[in-house]
Amino acid sequence: MKIVCLDLEGVLVPEIWIEFAEMTGIKELRATTRDYSDYDELMKMRLGVLDQNNLGMNEIQEVISKVEPMPGAKQFLDSIRSKYQLVILSDTYYEFAKPLMVQLGMPTLFCHQLQIADNGRIENYLLRLADHKRKSVEAFKALNFKTVAAGDSYNDTSMLKVADTGILFKAPDNVIAEFPQFQTATEYDHLESLIDAAFGE
Predict the structure, then answer these.
(1) What is the 3-state secondary structure (H, E, C) of 26-67?
(2) Which of 48, 50, 61, 196 counts the most CB atoms within 10 A of its CB?
(3) Strand bridging mode 146-151 / 122-126
(4) Which CATH topology does 2-13+70-198 take?
(5) Which member of 9, 19, 152, 156 is catalytic?
(6) For the segment 116-140, what is each residue's pLDDT rounded down to a tens digit?
(7) Whether 60 contacts 46, CB under 8 Å
(8) DSSP H helical segments within the chain, as ranges?
(9) Which CATH class is domain 16-64?
């Protein structure tokens, strides 16, 4: 009874907001959970910037349609899923993630939803549950799963702390320095070997 819990953006796919910032030239939208420890503060800033620039879901979906998973991500997921249960725990939104999930073979995804007006304006974000990554890992452990979790950002560290093994993957130096208790990896082969070792494989 083993389960692997992975973050999505920065681990398996590029950061969608960074890709969007590159397309629009709006530098504020480059900020992610690697920069903000307060997710609500980050999202309020993002929605405010979108409104100021009259941008919405239509423009974001145009970017998402061109985004592909990171090289090797699909093969890594296929290998992990052949050995263990797997769930992706992300603070993205189903409206963003679906095209990417298709490219990754439709793994199970727990994330949030957006409230979108008919004209494409993003009116609000609807969190499935506050700190849902940590609470999901705790629930899996209560179901008698041994859990390994991997992520790259501040919003991943609460789930890494409660997992049986927490791993930082492709994390920036500031996050690694602040959370030295976690193992680190930068390549999928190394990450998979750490997961296997955590499960005694």
Answers:
(1) CHHHHCCCCCCCCHHHHHHHHHHHHHHCCCCHHHHHHHHCCC
(2) 50
(3) unpaired
(4) Rossmann fold (3.40.50)
(5) 9
(6) 999 999 999 998 888 999 999 999 9
(7) no
(8) 16-24, 39-52, 57-64, 73-83, 94-103, 132-142, 157-162, 173-178, 188-198
(9) alpha beta
Q: CA-to-CA distance for 30 and 42, rounded, in angstroms?
A: 11
- Based on the residue annotation, tell me whether 9 is a catalytic residue of this protein: yes
State the Cα–Cα distance between residues 21 and 16, nearest whole angstrom: 9
Q: How many residues in the chain?
A: 201
Q: Which two tokens stand for residue 93?
A: 């939104």
Highest mean pLDDT among 16-20, 87-91, 98-102: 87-91
Give Dmax (Cα) for the chain: 52
- 68-99 CB burial, b ≥16 within 10 A, e <16: ebeeebbebbeebeeebebbbbbbbbebbbee
Interatomic CA distance for residues 190 and 169, integer angstroms: 10
pLDDT tens digits, residue range 167-181? Answer: 999 999 999 999 999
> Is there a catalytic annotation at residue 189?
no
Interatomic CA distance for residues 161 and 27, integer angstroms:
32
Say which of 7, 91, 152, 156 is annotated catalytic. Answer: 7
Backbone angles phi, psi at 156, to 5 degrees: -95, -20
**Which amino acid makes up residue 2?**
K
Q: Could you tell me the pTM of the whole model?
A: 0.89
Rounded-to-integer distance, Cα 163 and Cα 5, Å: 9
